[in-house]
Amino acid sequence: MKVPHAWKDRKKEMIIPHGPGHRTASKRPMWILVLISLVCISLIGAYIYPPRRYSSCYFFASSVCSPFKDWLPAINSRVLTDEEIASHVVIKDILAMPNVPSKNPKIAFMFLTPGTLPFERLWERFFLGHEGRFSIYVHASREKPVHVSPIFFGRDIRSDKVVWGKISMIDAEKRLLANALQDTDNQHFVLLSDSCIPLHNFDYIYNYLMGTNISFVDCFQDPGPHGNDRYSKHMLPEIEEDDFRKGSQWFSIKRQHAVLILADYLYYTKFKLYCKPGWEGRNCYADEHYLPTLFSMVDPTGIANWSITHVDWSEGKWHPKAYRAQDISYELLKNITSIDKSFHVTSDERKLVTETACMWNGMKRPCYLFARKFYPEALDNLMNLFSNYTAI
Ligand SMILES: *[C@@H]1O[C@H](CO)[C@@H](O)[C@H](O)[C@H]1NC(C)=O
Ligand SMILES: *[C@@H]1O[C@H](CO)[C@@H](O)[C@H](O)[C@H]1NC(C)=O
Ligand SMILES: *[C@@H]1O[C@H](CO)[C@@H](O)[C@H](O)[C@H]1NC(C)=O
Ligand SMILES: *[C@@H]1O[C@H](CO)[C@@H](O)[C@H](O)[C@H]1NC(C)=O
């Protein structure tokens, strides 16, 4: 975070007046004492009035001034680029806009899948009896899905190829959002994969998402190789390394934030150009960084900082744990639904763990509404248990 860094630098600089020169202070003429007091006063001033976010160096060459940047009182704001001024004003207006009123608020369930959805029958059971309170969108990036449930018929949107880790993943998410936003009754937008399952019944999930003004976007600061090491200086001046965030791709966002994502061109373009798999793109995966970075910059208090889709990384492998048919039990599902803290682990050698209680409107509640990854073979066992494990 900005403030602690600035504070640290400031403390370093404050040592100087009490440094080696201190011993000879008595021999010094008055003006040195006056100068020292002036420096002290401005340092205290800098502490009381912390530098503004965009404080920058107007009068100094950048090499001279960079160490001062963080502790001097704001001399001047960085001159914003044209794109940045435009972007800030558009985003500010979107965030200030009242919700589009809807007599019949719905949740948009957006499936990002290569092809056929293996858990369609489970989802059908989940949706049945709640017609009019949800809408479904399917983006199949590899082959046309074969639907077994009538509620999925005709719900495929025009899609395009998705390459793992590339910006085409974000483009597919934006395509889903654009389609789902056309229905003004859709108030909340959930991104799901083909290996996702619901962890609760429909009413529980509906009330959980509709009952809060927060978007569930996972977000944390990771100083390690899977975090800030992926940051590229080409993202300057708009995105500083301190702004860079990481988080799971699987979001659930309110309408205002969905519009914001479609309106953003500036930050999207930075990630499109400078966050790519492979060495040149700093081995960066836009789907793990773009939205967490965007929201932590433009609306940090509007996001929960955790994802409502559970995934188990505890095995420490390249891919999360995937559940087979024999893994499915009442106990497993209860274990997942009873988790009420979210965990983040940094990818550096410290492996620093942060544990945060999942707070919903000021109340501690279970974190997860959906879970991944499940093998298609788990379907029958999940169907058999569904009404049991979702009975609140
Ligand atoms: C969400 O925000 C709107 C406008 O600020 C407010 O009227 C509404 O009560 C809030 N809803 C919840 C569930 O907090
Ligand atoms: C998410 O994190 C940001 C920055 O750390 C914080 O300002 C915000 O309050 C957090 N969101 C919630 C809902 O606690
Ligand atoms: C459920 O959680 C308990 C306690 O953490 C653990 O001992 C048990 O192995 C878990 N069961 C399953 C099926 O994950
Ligand atoms: C679900 O199954 C568990 C274990 O088999 C049982 O203890 C529990 O009573 C069941 N709950 C419901 C609501 O059927």
Give a quick set of tags describing it.
12 helices, alpha/beta, 3-stranded mixed beta sheet, 392 residues, 4-stranded mixed beta sheet, binds 2-acetamido-2-deoxy-beta-D-glucopyranose
Overall description:
By secondary structure, this protein is of the alpha/beta class. The protein has one domain (106-389). The protein contains 12 helices and 15 strands. The strands form 6 sheets. The chain has a 4-stranded mixed sheet, with helices on both faces. A 3-stranded mixed sheet has the order 6-15-10. A two-stranded antiparallel ribbon has the order 1-2. Strand 13 (359-360) and strand 14 form a beta hairpin. The relative contact order is 0.11. The protein binds 2-acetamido-2-deoxy-beta-D-glucopyranose (4 copies). One 2-acetamido-2-deoxy-beta-D-glucopyranose binds next to strand 9.
Summarize the structure.
It is built from 12 helices and 15 strands.
Q: Tell me, rounded to a whole number, the average pLDDT.
A: 83
Report low-confidence residues grouped into runs of 5 or more: 1-27, 48-76
- Please estimate the helix content: 25-40%
Give the spatial strand order of the biggest sheet: 4-3-5-8
Beta-strand residue fraction: 5-15%
How is this fold's topology laid out?
Layout: H1 2-14, H2 30-48, E1 55-56, H3 62-65, E2 76-77, H4 82-96, E3 106-113, H5 120-127, E4 134-140, H6 167-181, E5 186-193, E6 197-198, H7 202-210, E7 215-218, E8 252-254, H8 255-263, H9 266-274, H10 286-298, E9 303-305, E10 309-310, H11 330-337, E11 341-345, E12 353-357, E13 359-360, E14 363-364, E15 370-371, H12 379-389
Parallel strand pairs: 3-4, 3-5, 7-9, 10-15
Antiparallel strand pairs: 1-2, 5-8, 6-15, 11-12, 13-14
Helix pairs in contact: 4-8, 6-8, 9-10
This protein binds 2-acetamido-2-deoxy-beta-D-glucopyranose (4 copies).
One 2-acetamido-2-deoxy-beta-D-glucopyranose binds next to β9.
